[in-house]
Write a structure and sequence with these properties.
Helices cover 59% and strands 11% of the residues. The protein is an alpha/beta fold. Strands 6, 7, 8, 9, 10 and 11 form a 6-stranded mixed β-sheet that branches. Strands 2-1-3-4-5 form a 5-stranded parallel β-sheet, sandwiched between helices. Helix 7 crosses helix 8, helix 10 runs antiparallel to helix 11 and helix 12 packs parallel to helix 14. The longest helix is centred in the N-terminal third of the chain and has 45 residues. It holds the Pfam family HTH_18. One of its GO terms (cellular component) is cytoplasm.
Length: 548
């Protein structure tokens, strides 16, 4: 990028010589303008973004020192070289005080001045590069934090509220955004995917990780601001942020889905199905939209590679949806280990099926079969069954069932889960206690829910559910709260800098830490510290922080 330089001197021959003699193009600069005094210079700076200012000290109307003072007072980012025929140290000291980068005496040694300009511009570009890298790094951190929050919203583990302390200024923008939702799913009922059942946990995790990377890379390369959220083993929710002015173009969005399916097929050698929510979704609508797409994909007997949900025609009937809601309540009760609710929901499903006549049986049977597949996937996430028992259950599902057989299968699965519920509950309590200990020991570094789940041997989705049930808050809420409480203690009791404390509680970026801390406490870290430290200590802390 070519920078702009402004030349300010009341002697016209000097500015003409500067324009001609200095190799501006080689230095990556172009002369944006020439001024005879400080007033003219300020007017030109309002019209152009100036990177470098070469300025005489003694000029009529407004001299160079007053010009520099006003530039700094306005906060205009600009490097400055002062030119002067005076060797009086008073001028030099004043120039340094105003943040001038260098001071060159007249008559101007042009070779020396060229070297000074080259050095200043090199430093400026290095600084700009560093700032860009920091912004990108901070932006990625914000994206990752948003993905963690979006996971909890989609899974309905947290209520989205703009006033929630977890939503910093950046995540706060989520409520202003609208998304295209594409759910990508591995069809476990397909003959091609039966090997998935035999894969080890390590193989499936590597495969899930690979698919996430493929999706993120493809979306990023196409300039789509996105979140890729793995909702369970073999299922992902892709959210693509769109502008408020964008219309819901079915062809464009279907093209995005085709692009993602092709990328996964090419790089991960896997075939997925895509379900697209028919319409933009606001943040508060994400959980409902996800359930509608998931329900449509699970209860559709004939799968197409890409389908929009809810379907415009021949969608699920009211009875089908009522059945699915009951079935979801059943799975939720199984996950909670609520035996009484499991029995009640199984009876509810039985009553609904008793009213199915022969004419509707052909339609209900595949719907029920797909629900059982859905239930088996959820049980697999929970690691409910020993491998041998799980294999037998999958083999039974490979055969065609009557409605009576499918209902008996549901009873078999739920009874098996309920029989193990006491032991499972004790195991879950132990796992959550170990997870909490693991998190408390590792607050100083970047922690993911996937890593915590792996540490206690659980799937990410089941770990997230158990964690919320056990501690009453989501993983990200707990981790952030503990980090903020630790930071409060360090600010009140230690002499460590804010940057040091940020790193110690797991934030590589001080600015991002500050945003979260302010949202949590209402104070920035320095002001919070001042409430607990005496004036003398605070003054030294404040000077150190300002110098960073």
């Amino acid at each position: 990028m070519i920078g702009k330089v402004l030349l300010v001197d009341d002697e016209a021959h000097i500015t003409r010589n500067l324009e001609k003699v200095i190799p501006w193009e080689m230095l990556g600069l172009t002369v944006a303008g020439v001024a005879k005094n400080g007033v003219e210079a300020l007017q030109l700076m309002e019209q152009h973004s100036i990177n470098l200012l070469l300025c005489d000290i003694r000029m009529p109307v407004m001299d160079g020192l007053e010009l520099v003072r006003q530039i700094r007072e306005r906060g205009t980012p600009c490097d400055i070289i002062m030119l002067s025929g005076y060797q009086d140290f008073t001028y030099t000291r004043a120039a340094i005080q105003y943040g001038v980068n260098d001071y060159v005496l007249k008559p101007i040694p042009y070779d020396e001045l060229t070297g000074v300009i080259a050095r200043i511009m090199s430093n400026q570009r290095n600084k700009q590069k560093q700032q860009l890298e920091e912004q990108q790094k901070l932006g990625r951190m914000i994206d990752l934090a948003s993905e963690k929050i979006l996971y909890d919203i989609i899974m309905d583990y947290t209520d989205f509220s703009g006033s929630h302390w977890l939503f910093t200024g950046d995540e706060q923008q989520l409520k202003l955004q609208q998304f295209v939702m594409i759910v990508l799913d591995f069809d476990v009922s397909s003959e091609k995917t039966k090997d998935w059942r035999d894969w080890s946990d390590k193989e499936r995790k590597l495969w899930n990780f690979a698919v996430c990377n493929v999706l993120r890379e493809k979306l990023q390369n196409n300039g789509l601001h996105h979140a890729v959220i793995q909702t369970r083993d073999g299922e992902w929710c892709v959210l693509i942020e769109t502008g408020a002015a964008m219309s819901f173009d079915v062809d464009v969005i279907q093209g995005w889905a085709e692009m993602l399916l092709t990328a996964v097929r090419s790089h991960a050698k896997l075939s997925l199905n895509a379900g697209i929510y028919r319409g933009f979704a606001k943040v508060e609508e994400l959980s409902r939209a996800f359930r509608l797409v998931q329900m449509g994909m699970q209860l559709t007997p004939v799968h197409h590679a890409i389908t929009f949900y809810p379907a415009e025609q021949q969608g699920l009937s009211g009875a089908d949806q009522a059945f699915w809601i009951t079935a979801e309540r059943l799975i939720s009760a199984v996950k909670r280990g609520d035996t009484a609710s499991v029995d009640a929901e199984v009876e509810n499903i039985s009553r609904q099926l008793q009213h199915v006549n022969e004419q509707n049986a052909a339609k209900v049977r595949p719907l029920l079969h797909f629900f059982v597949l859905h239930m088996m996937r959820e049980m697999k996430e929970m690691s409910v069954f020993p491998k041998e028992q799980e294999e037998l259950l999958w083999k039974r599902l490979d055969h065609r069932f009557s409605i009576k057989d499918l209902l008996a299968f549901i009873r078999q699965v739920t009874n098996a889960v309920c029989e193990r519920s006491v032991d499972k509950k004790k195991q879950s309590e132990s796992s959550m206690a170990e997870a909490k200990s693991f998190l408390d020991r590792n607050l100083y570094r970047d922690l993911s829910v996937e890593e915590a789940a792996t540490h206690v041997g659980l799937s990410t989705s089941y770990f997230s559910l158990l964690f919320k049930q056990t501690y009453g808050e989501t993983f990200i809420e707990y981790v952030t709260r503990q980090r903020m409480e630790r930071a409060k203690s360090l600010l009140a009791e230690s002499q460590k800098s804010v940057a040091q404390i940020a790193k110690e509680v797991g934030y590589a970026e001080r600015r991002y830490f500050t945003k979260v801390f302010m949202k949590y406490t209402g104070d920035n870290p320095t002001d919070y510290r001042s409430k607990f430290q005496d004036d003398t200590s605070y003054s030294s802390f404040n000077m150190r922080e300002e110098n960073k």
